[in-house]
Structures are given as C-alpha cells and as structure tokens.
Amino acid sequence: MAVLKINGEDKKFKNAVPATLKNLLELLKVDEATVVAEINGQVVPRGNFHNTILQDGHKIELIRFVGGG
Amino acid sequence: MKNKLIIAGKEFSSRLFIGTGKYASNEIMAKAIEASGTEMVTVALRRVDIQNPQDNMLAAIDRKKYLLLPNTSGARNADEAVRLARLARAATEINWLKLEVTPDPYYLLPDPVETLKAAEILVKEGFIVLPYINADPVLAKKLQDIGAATVMPLASPIGSNQGLKTKSAIEIIISQATVPVVVDAGLGMPSHAAEAMEMGADAVLINTAIATANDPVKMAEAFKKAVQAGREAFQAGSSGIKKQANASSPLTGFLRD
Predict the structure, then answer these.
(1) Continuous segment of H or E residues that includes residue B44
(2) Per-residue pLDDT for B1 more than 60?
(3) Using an 8 Å Cβ cutoff, are B152 and B133 in contact?
(4) Inter-chain residue contact B58 with A64, CB threshold 8 Å
(5) Which of B117, B149, B175, B185 could form a disulfide with B78 if both were Cys (CB 3.0 to 4.6 A apart)?
(6) Confidence bin at B171 (pLDDT 50/70/90)
C-alpha cells in the first residue's frame, strides 16, 4: 500500500503511487494545463509535470484559478 | 492631464477592474466582463475539487483581452499570502498580484502589518504588487514607498455594497499618492463608483455589485458609464460647494418697476 496526501486527503494506491505528477493528473482526470502543483511545499514549474517523480508519502497540492474579487 | 491609467508601465484605457467571483455562470461572467469594457480581471486560487476536476473558469476569460490579476484571498498572514503569490506566478507566468491578507472572516478587513510585510517580500521577488488595504493614509504611504504598484483602499467591507464610507481617508490617500489609487471593495452602485472617480481615484474594482445584480451584464454597462462620467467630471473640475444660492439667471433686467 502506498499513499499520497492530495489536497489534504490521503489517497491510497494498491501497489505503488503513479510514477510522475503527469501520470497522477491523468489518473484524476485533471487537465494539466489548468493546474499548478506543489509537492511538499515546493512549486513544480509548469512543463515539469512529466519528469516530476512521485514518492510514497508525498504531500501534493493541486490548485487552480476560481472566480474571485 | 493624462487620460490613460498607467500601472507599472502598463497602459489601461479602462479605469474599471472587475472581480470574477459570485457569478451564476461562467457565461454570464464572460458577458459582464465584455460589457464592462475592463482590461483587467481578478481571480482567486483554490484547491482543485478532485470530485469535479473538469470545472475551469479560466477558459471563459480571453487572456489576450484581459490581464489576469491573481489575488491572495484566503491568506490570513504574510506567509500564506507569499505562498499563494508564488503559486499564482507559477500558474500564470505573470507577476501581477492583488495582495490581500484578511485574518478576520466576518468583516474581512485587511491586516495592515501582515500586508506590509508580504508586500516587502513580494516586491523584492519582482512581483507587481497591488495591495488591498483599509483606507489608512499612513499605510498607503508606506506601501508606495516600498514599491507597491498601486494602493487599493476599501470603500467599505468587501461585498457589503455600502458605498464610500471611508471617503475622507481616501481623499487624504489620493492627495499624497505617488502611485495610482484604486478604490476596491464595497462600491455597491454606479453612483458610488462615480463618486470615487469624481474625487480623483485613478480606478475602481467592482465584483459583488455586478456579479450579484439581477442583470449583471446591464449593471456592468452601468458601472462602465459611471466610471467614465466620474473621471470626466474630475478632469472638468467642479467649482465647489457653496452655502448660499448663486443665481444661474441674471439678477438684472426684471420686468418690474
């Protein structure tokens, strides 16, 4: 069992976590063009999602723009 | 007197900025933005809803026409605001930022100490910082001195539609401003926006009054006209208020003996 903490909630994976951030976004059906990501508090530069390797226990924030004043 | 608004070297034809919150749909929001004539719209950053990952309001905003101004709403202190600012820059690849730090959820009044602290950090990191502040002339001066691109004093609490409750303090801010003054928050009707522009504000930022109107598109048009009218009145220059009547018609040549 492997776990990623995504937006404050644990997501469990049977064998291993997805290999890369890009793989995770595909699994979650999140369009990577619309999000910004943080792993363990560090911003992942746009364009680096495909070569950002995920590890068991990573804390991931997936953030996007919403309406606001 | 120059008629174009310039913030951090960028020229704006419209002096009305629009917030994108609270609209009933992305479609109505897009139409209201268009009707307002604005060139800059604010947006907020929030966690992706993993259960509903398709929702993407940004698709409704034509980024060739409208500059995005990400805000740091939700930040309760300087550290949280700086974190949101860095995320916003990573997401947009632009460095414009509406800095807001509001620890109290009831009145949503901005924290002056944390706002100044965050502004100092972000200006050093190359952000174009537009800080949302209470109408505090001393704070406004400190912010412009450390390199904020504007100051954005509130007219009254966010979303309250109360109008220009802080008028006399904003007059002082305008009188000592070396950067554009954008009146933000609380302007509930076009007449409020016109009043702010008549007294010499450089721009206004409107969200709730438009987004929650019965007809947001019509209200956006009304604000557009009010902002233009207020600006033109400011440029035209009033002769001021007098206590006594001053006849508009001649006081000679009456038809009486």
Answers:
(1) strand B40-47
(2) no
(3) yes
(4) yes
(5) B117
(6) very high
